[in-house]
Amino acid sequence: MSDHDHDHDHARTVTPMVDEITDFEVLEIALRELCIEKGLFTAEEHRVFTEYAEHIGPAPGARLVAKAWLDPEFKKLALTDPMAASKEVGVDWQEPTGFGTPSDFTAFKILEDTPTVHNVIVCALCSCYPRPILGNSPEWYRTPNYRRRLVRWPRQVLSEFGLELSADVEVRVEDSNQKRRFMVMPMRPDGTEGWTEAQLSEIITRDCLIGVALPKPGVTANVTPLVRRAIRPVDA
Asked: What Gene Ontology molecular-function terms does this entry list (predicted)?
């Protein structure tokens, strides 16, 4: 590699903030550099989209659910045409930044909880997630521990988030993939009669929209999962 090439790479690629990077991060850097070289997008376009993705959060999803709780007609729209309902809370899946996110908008479905069915989402393969409406996924969602165990032992995993469901409630695990994304619509909790849409939105946390928590009056923070020590820890 020439000095010119070395300087060129340094000008574009941000140095990782950790001592080691994963194979996926190496692939992402290589693919990004190649796309810029081929003219598929510019470094500036990549920066704009990255900043957009880092600043969105679950607020649109919370507003959508709160609106559905209050408006039966909107709830019907959310369950039959969730992409149209998303636009009413400011999320356009096809053009969120002006140049689209082709891997995100092909299919989006909202899963309605009922007294006998509880939904929870996962991406068993990697970390597919409805980012335009929920923001970036939490770190635990991307871990092999969550991905592998939720599909096998969903009740045990949910209990580690503090969510204990009765035996008469069916737990349905929906597996996201590259072209299909999901969001949970939890049931409106008791004690919220007369609340405004803004008040309801505050208790619909990101974890409620994933399905590892239930909305409760007074609870506006996400769950901190229980961390279990490794059976055979590796010495530092």
From this structure: hydrolase activity; transition metal ion binding
